[in-house]
Amino acid sequence: MSVLDALESGPASLARLVRITGLARPTAHRLAVALERHRMVTRDSQGRFVLGPRLGELSIATGEDRLLAAANPVLAQLRDLTGESAQLYRRQGDVRVCVAAAERASGLRDTVPVGSELPMNAGSAAQVLLAWEDTERIRRSLRGARFNAATLTQVRRRRWSQSVGEREHGVASVSAPISGPGGRVIAAVSVSGPIERLTRSPGRLHAQAVTAAAEKITEALHTQEAPS
């Protein structure tokens, strides 16, 4: 479990696994390779350990994803309240994946299909998903990013982020963090749309609504985890 927990934040070399878990190098290697045989862990193109496909298969087998169950109705409410498309993002290695969305029904809108992989170097959701990572990962991810360390400090302070034309020309967005039962940021909820409507200060319009939506999803997850 220590190895799997360490890989939750993304790919890791053996040296990184040893550093995060505190396990002896031979033990960390033996466990990671054993998990690889069972497809709980796999390797990326650089030979680093990453979470494997078996975890996804087990999640599907439960018939329920608690995060999606909690988020989908909230996304619809957020869309209706703001009049903009709403999305839910999770980090997966070096990208963020749209795992749920509630699209604006008509008019000019920012459409992000479920399953889309977007970069971690631009956009308000990327800022949120990176802001609470460890220092080393933040430093590495900021290379070539459209935002900087000061931006992430501000995100942690106010618990929401905004971007204007970072990911795509003419698109603005606002995002806020969703925390799991352990307090770890596990996802970001966002609204996005054309700058013409969201303006160059989209947080002034929608930060309160997006933050409230994130808090509502977080509360639902914590309630699901609480013992009956």
Describe the model:
With 228 residues, the protein is an alpha+beta fold. The chain has two domains: 2-61, Winged helix-like DNA-binding domain superfamily/Winged helix DNA-binding domain (Arc Repressor Mutant, subunit A); 66-225, GAF domain (Beta-Lactamase, 2-Layer Sandwich). Helices cover 46% and strands 21% of the residues. It has ten helices and eight strands. The strands form two sheets. It has a six-stranded antiparallel beta sheet. Strands 1-2 form a two-stranded antiparallel sheet. Helix 5 runs antiparallel to helix 10 and helix 6 (124-131) packs across helix 8. The longest helix has 24 residues, at 202-225. It is globular. The mean pLDDT is 90.
Which key terms come to mind for this protein?
46% helix, 10 helices, Arc Repressor Mutant, subunit A, 6-stranded antiparallel sheet, Beta-Lactamase, 228 residues, 8 strands, alpha+beta
Provide a brief overview of the structure.
The protein is of the alpha+beta class. It has helices at residues 2-7, 14-21, 25-37, 53-61, 66-82, 124-131, 135-141, 149-158, 195-198, 202-225, and strands spanning 41-43, 49-51, 85-92, 95-102, 117-119, 161-164, 171-179, 185-194. Strand 6 and strand 7 form a beta hairpin.
